[in-house]
């Protein structure tokens, strides 16, 4: 039972983070370790169409950061210069391999996020990326299509999971706490008698 409790704790502490501590260095080999775990998870028809780029170089991180859209539900919030991520993992679909990259990417990215939490890091999966800019930045061949990017660093914000009241949009409290509404178990569990 203790292994399950450890797992539950990691899952419950794996939240999308948008404020990171400054001056944190994440080494490339730590990102590669997360990618190595992600490459072993389930893949539709075991086709494995995903590829990854581990990003730690400061100049490239600046270029990766420019087109990102953070926290679409928060109208009067912007990430400060000293809150930026320390590293990124770009998730890429190899379109020359017929597979289920939309499903595979979810499994792989959650695995990376859980692994990052286990390492003491936090992350944010971003879909609002400039795929064309990234394709050019990394000189990707035609069959390699950027899908998502995972921003990583050390969490520098308080995040609280709360019950859904009116809608599921996340929001900030007056003191900057990030609230994430989740449906109650009784709302998602269809109990068979």
Radius of gyration: 18 Å
CATH topology of the largest domain: NADH Oxidase
The poorly predicted ranges are none
What is the total domain count?
2
| Name of the CATH homologous superfamily of the largest domain | NADH Oxidase
Strand order of the largest sheet: 1-2-4-3
Question: Which range does the strand content fall in?
Answer: 15-25%
Described by strand count, sense and barrel closure, the largest sheet is:
4 strands, antiparallel
Distance between the termini: 26 Å
General description of the model:
This protein has 193 residues and is an alpha+beta fold. It folds into 2 domains: 2-157, 3-Layer(aba) Sandwich (NADH Oxidase); 158-193, putative fmn-dependent nitroreductase like domains (putative fmn-dependent nitroreductase like fold, Single Sheet). It contains 6 helices and 7 strands. The chain has a 4-stranded antiparallel beta sheet, with helices on both faces. Strands 5-7-6 form a 3-stranded mixed beta sheet, with no helix packed on it. Helix 2 (28-38) packs across helix 4 (101-118). The longest helix has 18 residues, at 101-118. It is globular. It starts with a helix and ends in a 5-residue tail after the last helix.
């Amino acid at each position: 039972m203790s292994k399950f409790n450890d797992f539950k704790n990691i899952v419950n502490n794996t939240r999308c983070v948008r404020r990171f501590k400054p001056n944190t260095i994440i080494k490339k080999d730590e990102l590669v370790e997360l990618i190595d775990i992600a490459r072993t998870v389930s893949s539709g028809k075991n086709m494995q169409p995903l590829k990854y780029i581990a990003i730690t170089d400061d100049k490239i991180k600046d270029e990766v950061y420019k087109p990102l859209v953070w926290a679409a539900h928060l109208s009067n919030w912007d990430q400060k210069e000293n809150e930026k991520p320390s590293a990124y993992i770009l998730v890429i679909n190899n379109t020359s391999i017929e597979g289920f990259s939309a499903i595979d990417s979810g499994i792989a990215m959650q695995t990376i996020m859980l692994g990052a939490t286990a390492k003491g890091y936090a992350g944010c999966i971003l879909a609002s990326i400039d795929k064309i800019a990234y394709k050019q930045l990394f000189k990707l061949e035609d069959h390699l299509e950027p899908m998502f990017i995972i921003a990583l660093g050390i969490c520098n914000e308080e995040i609280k999971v709360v019950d859904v009241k009116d809608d599921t949009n996340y929001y900030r409290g007056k003191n900057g706490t990030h609230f994430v509404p989740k449906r109650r178990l009784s709302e998602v569990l269809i109990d068979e008698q």
